[in-house]
Amino acid sequence: MERRVAEQLRSALGPLGLEAHAFKVGWYNAVLQPTFHLPYPDDTLAFVVLSTPSMFDKALKPFVSKERLKIIRDPVDQCVSHHLSRVKEKFPDQRVDIMFDYEMLPSRKPKFLAQTAAHVAGAAYYYQRKDVKLDPWGKKKIFGVCIHPKYGGWFAIRALLLFPAIQVPFLEQPPPVDCVSSEEKRIELLEQFNFHWQDGRYRDIIEVKERYSEEQKTYFATPPAERFRLLGLSQEAQ
């Protein structure tokens, strides 16, 4: 069942520049405090959805062109929501729950921890302070960051798809690719991400096979309120 669902998701999302990676809810819950647990049985099938560099041209620009008058908030969020809602329709006999990376619980905690989900699914390696043996940062707060073995930091984690009626007790967990394996590189990565994230150098910590286009870099570097004009949208749309 898991394989069939994965193939359907791959065929639906791949042409849009999106990836879906399977995991069991139990893998995710096992590494987090109870307050962050997903409220499903451990063997429940889930997928973490990533956007790759090609999503901008394959999904976002066509979506904006078609839905121009309906865009009232963030175009990327609306684009992903639109396409995942259509994917959901491909499983009429299944309950499919969708959680988006920007959604919050009433407690103001995120509905899910995106980077943890990507790591347990084997989609991208979540490098954290604990992955550095000789910690040079003292009392400074250091945030972790996911690196994709193909795209480096040129990707984003967008959503979870959960299939509550599908239990996969025998699903094997794929380890994420440890592509930043040296201590020196890990320190460099966390330094760049925490203290120089604006210049985006951390995204190229490894040799990548694809990165954002110049147009896409400009879009994401522009303050959200000003992005509408880059896509040919009026401020009224906002």
From TrEMBL:
Q: Which UniProt keywords apply?
A: Cobalamin, Cobalt, Cytoplasm, FAD, Flavoprotein, FMN, NADP, Oxidoreductase
Family (UniProt): Belongs to the MMACHC family.
Cellular localization per UniProt: Cytoplasm
What name goes with this protein?
A: Cyanocobalamin reductase / alkylcobalamin dealkylase
GO CC aspect terms: cytoplasm
Where does the protein principally reside?
cytoplasm
This protein's cofactor list reads: FAD; FMN
Q: Which CDD domains match?
A: MMACHC-like
Q: Which domain of life is it from?
A: Eukaryota
Quote the catalytic activity from the record: apo-[alkylcobalamin reductase] + methylcob(III)alamin + glutathione = S-methyl glutathione + cob(I)alamin-[alkylcobalamin reductase] + H(+); 2 cob(II)alamin-[cyanocobalamin reductase] + 2 hydrogen cyanide + NADP(+) = 2 cyanocob(III)alamin + 2 apo-[cyanocobalamin reductase] + NADPH + H(+); apo-[alkylcobalamin reductase] + an R-cob(III)alamin + glutathione = cob(I)alamin-[alkylcobalamin reductase] + an S-substituted glutathione + H(+); apo-[alkylcobalamin reductase] + adenosylcob(III)alamin + glutathione = S-adenosylglutathione + cob(I)alamin-[alkylcobalamin reductase] + H(+)
GO molecular function annotations of the record: cobalamin binding; cyanocobalamin reductase (cyanide-eliminating) (NADP+) activity; demethylase activity; FAD binding
Q: What is a biological process (GO) this protein takes part in?
A: cobalamin metabolic process
Q: What is its EC number?
A: 1.16.1.6, 2.5.1.151
- What Pfam families is this protein classified in? MMACHC
